[in-house]
Amino acid sequence: MAVAVADVVAAKRIPPRRSPRVARIDDLELERIASLGWRGLDTAELGEWQLRAAGGWTGRANSVLPLGDPGSPLDDALASVREWYAARDLPPTIQLPLPARDDLRRALAERGWTDRWGALVLVARVRALRAANLSVPGLPPVTVASSPDPGWLAAYHYRGGGALPAVAQEVLRSGTAPGFVALRLDGAPVAICRLALDEGWVGITAVEVDPAHRRRGLATHLLAGAVEYAAEHGAEGVYLQVDSDNAGALAMYEKLGFTHHHTYRYYRP
Predict the structure, then answer these.
(1) How many domains does the chain have?
(2) Is 30 found in the same domain as 134?
(3) Which of 38, 91, 101, 241 has the fewest CB atoms within 10 Å, i.e. the most exposed one?
(4) Distance between CA 152 and CA 192 in Å, rounded?
(5) Which CATH number is 147's domain given?
(6) Alpha helices in the chain (DSSP H)
(7) How do residues 78-134 score in pLDDT, each as one tens digit?
(8) 78 with 141, same domain?
(9) DSSP 159
């Protein structure tokens, strides 16, 4: 069906679905895909900025993702951000993919916003991880469920915290089709992670291994099972986030073949 240009009231550019291009995908495109896998429960758009809120649980679900132009002068956009988060009793927070949004980082710093925390984003190819044959002999196969059971939830401690708040379960279940991976010994989960499959990528988050069972290859075996599941569902690229000061995790992922793609930092006034 053809529509005359004169009859168009509003339009929005829809980017074509891209192949993962693990080595070449840019920071903003990968963060856009990651935003599909870990979502805010309350969202809005400000031009090409995504505003997300979820009761304050996790930075990604409670921050602005500035993928492009906010559609207004920066100071006006920041005033709108402050107002939107104040209405939800949350601090205004902007997630800055770097180096892609270094321009915005400088502008925020000039206005008194400061760097609070962040992480490194690592990527790998599903094919390469499968070829590395990461499964550990003698360990049981991992399982993947469409929702987290009580054992999985009990095993997850976000940033070392205690019991998860009710809103956490809503965030964990958000997304197109999240997968909850577990490696169980004697029926109890001793290693877990969460998967999000979107546009040819699988995001691996919420990785945790029971301290009593560490240094046995459980994390590697868990990753092997997660990658197999991702491959069966058509994923070609893998991304995950790691704290920059988590030397042990960084060394493990780099040994398995992950490379640093970009960094993101959270800024607040």
Answers:
(1) 2
(2) no
(3) 91
(4) 7
(5) 3.40.630.30
(6) 27-37, 74-86, 102-110, 126-131, 150-155, 166-173, 218-232, 247-256
(7) 999 999 999 999 999 999 999 999 999 999 999 999 999 999 999 999 999 999 988
(8) no
(9) G
